Amino acid sequence: MAEQPSVWQQRIAGQWHGRPSLFDATGTWCGFEEIRRSSVFADGVTTYYMDGGLIGGGPLAGQFRLGAPFAFGVVDADDNRVYTGPDFYGTGQPYGGFVDSHYYGPGWQVDLNTWNQVLPDGETQVYSSVLYQGWSVVGCFNGVYTRTLDDSPESAGRVERFLAEETRRGPVPYITPTKQAGAYTGDLELYGADQKPRGTVGMRLALDPVDLLHTTRTLTWSGPLSRTASFSARRDGNRHFYEGPQAWGNAIGFGRALFGSLHFTDVTKVKFREFAIDAEPGMSADGRLAVVYEIFQGNVLDAVLHGVLHWEAS
């Protein structure tokens, strides 16, 4: 038994409240999951709890509606978090404020790849779980969580306002500005595949709209990770395509979360999630992007880059 919780476990102490959205495999919004999550370290043992229920869900409701609260053990460590059941089995690897988890849920009957990103404010989590049957995607949960450390009326009021915001924002599709040039910029944390910090990377994702469906993207990383690549981005509904000349790939949007892959013209490729935290119904597309990029050299993970970018119109 551990004498004290891991750094990640300390980072996620308290109760987290959210209303993540459920999407089917095509990216169609199906409903909300009303969730309260907490992980408790006591007597050297960590247990993870998840309580709530599904609102809506369509044809997926029978599979993903909770019949009882989830609870599962965690072998808590700073290199590997092992989920020991009975409700989830698998592992998660922390990279600073981000954990990449792969596990199986017998109750939901799906394999999950969960990306959980605690933002620099320490009070916000950007969460997604892509759900698989074998290698086929069957759905996705994603949303934003906020933390409480007490049961005061002030905390309850803040959570109520937060959940109202998430109700508006959850179904909003990921669409970047289509008539306003600008850039998302910020400083991101870089971790090696060994989970050790490599420093801070300055990022600029410049957008130059061509028309309502085409944009020239220019991605720039500076610092311990250095690269610039410009490429054409095309959107077809919630499907996105990156068509060179300096990077190629595609992506799919599940609401305001975009999941994609990007192949540069050398051995480097990227698996990523871009999450429009502040997206609202209507035509506003500015605000913050929470981003995670897993960077591979060939088929080998080399680094993980994550943080928050802010929109600057030009």
Poorly predicted tracts of residues: none
Helix content: under 10%
Mean pLDDT: 93
The total of beta strands comes to 21
CATH class category label of the largest domain = Mainly Beta
* Shape by Cα distribution: globular
Number of helices: 3
Distance between the termini: 54 Å
The CATH homologous superfamily of the largest domain: Calycin beta-barrel core domain
Into how many domains do the coordinates divide?
Answer: 2
Class of secondary structure makeup: mainly beta
Overview of the structural elements:
The protein has 314 residues and is mainly beta. It has two domains: 7-169, Lipocalin; 182-313, Lipocalin (Beta Barrel). Helices cover 8% and strands 61% of the residues. It has three helices and 21 strands.
In short:
This protein has 314 residues and is mainly β.
Comma- or semicolon-separated keywords:
Lipocalin, 314 residues, mainly beta, single chain, 61% strand, 2 domains, 3 helices, ten-stranded antiparallel barrel
SSE map:
Elements: H1 7-11, E1 15-18, E2 21-24, E3 29-42, E4 45-56, H2 61-64, E5 70-75, E6 81-86, E7 89-95, E8 98-105, E9 110-118, E10 124-133, E11 136-148, H3 153-169, E12 182-192, E13 197-209, E14 214-222, E15 227-236, E16 239-245, E17 247-254, E18 257-264, E19 268-276, E20 288-297, E21 300-313
Antiparallel strand pairs: 1-3, 1-11, 2-3, 2-11, 3-4, 4-5, 5-6, 6-7, 7-8, 8-9, 9-10, 10-11, 12-13, 12-21, 13-14, 14-15, 15-16, 16-17, 17-18, 18-19, 19-20, 20-21
